[in-house]
């Protein structure tokens, strides 16, 4: 599928404000890819699709998780996590994406994981710091991202973990694994 067709189809899956966010993630992913030596075309493609399932009904995401063999333990954690692995599945099935690096960047853009690839880091960080984002830590994350993907991502995960603690929510183990692993690489 060509870029324009992909953009038109993804845009139709979400409200205007979420598409604006997606454009911000696309632009930021390209900047980070150029800054840190990744393929900007692939980074943009992952960004276009990263939230493709964000507005799907919970029941529709749950059906894919159960029927397509995605990690069932997700169902015991916050529903906000589900659109990422479901999005990777949809990117492959409905948009014809085959590149595992792109599919993984979509799959892990919310949770992170141990051993995040350069592409995983770029899309996850772009999602935190795109120009439309406004939360207390965002300016400091943008400053850290001038020099270090890893330091910026740790700050991002710290803010998410803090938020989840304040909300009394469960925390998905991959998020701890991602943060622990990133900390080892920046010491
Ligand atoms: O889809 P977006 O809103 O652009 O951003 P995202 O895909 O990073 O989703 C972030 C939401 O996921 C945020 O509100 C926190 C929530 N969430 C719930 N449980 C977890 C979690 N995020 C992480 N990293 N880990 C969790 O265990
Ligand atoms: Fe998302
Ligand atoms: Fe995120
Ligand atoms: Fe997003």
From TrEMBL:
<keyword id="KW-0479">Metal-binding</keyword>
<keyword id="KW-0408">Iron</keyword>
<dbReference type="InterPro" id="IPR005249">
    <property type="entry name" value="YqeK"/>
</dbReference>
<dbReference type="InterPro" id="IPR006674">
    <property type="entry name" value="HD_domain"/>
</dbReference>
<keyword id="KW-0378">Hydrolase</keyword>
<dbReference type="GO" id="GO:0008803">
    <property type="term" value="F:bis(5'-nucleosyl)-tetraphosphatase (symmetrical) activity"/>
</dbReference>
<dbReference type="Pfam" id="PF01966">
    <property type="entry name" value="HD"/>
</dbReference>
<dbReference type="InterPro" id="IPR051094">
    <property type="entry name" value="Diverse_Catalytic_Enzymes"/>
</dbReference>
<protein>
    <recommendedName>
        <fullName>bis(5'-nucleosyl)-tetraphosphatase (symmetrical)</fullName>
        <ecNumber>3.6.1.41</ecNumber>
    </recommendedName>
</protein>
<feature type="domain" description="HD">
    <location>
        <begin position="18"/>
        <end position="132"/>
    </location>
</feature>
<dbReference type="InterPro" id="IPR003607">
    <property type="entry name" value="HD/PDEase_dom"/>
</dbReference>
<keyword id="KW-0547">Nucleotide-binding</keyword>
């Amino acid at each position: 599928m060509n870029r324009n067709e992909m953009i038109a189809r993804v845009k139709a899956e979400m409200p205007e404000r979420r598409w604006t966010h997606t454009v911000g993630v696309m632009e930021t992913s390209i900047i980070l890819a150029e800054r840190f030596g990744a393929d900007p075309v692939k980074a943009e493609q992952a960004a276009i699709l990263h939230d493709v399932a964000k507005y799907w009904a919970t029941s529709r995401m749950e059906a894919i998780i159960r029927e397509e063999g995605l990690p069932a333990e997700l169902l015991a954690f916050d529903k906000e996590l589900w659109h990422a692995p479901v999005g990777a599945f949809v990117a492959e099935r409905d948009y014809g994406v085959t590149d595992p690096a792109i599919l993984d960047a979509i799959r892990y853009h919310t949770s992170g994981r141990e051993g995040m690839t350069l592409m995983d880091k770029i899309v996850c960080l772009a999602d935190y710091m795109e120009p439309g984002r406004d939360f207390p830590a965002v300016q400091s994350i943008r400053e850290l991202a001038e020099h270090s993907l890893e330091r910026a991502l740790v700050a991002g995960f710290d803010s998410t973990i803090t938020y989840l603690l304040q909300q009394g929510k469960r925390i998905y183990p991959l998020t701890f694994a991602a943060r622990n692993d990133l900390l080892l690489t920046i010491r």
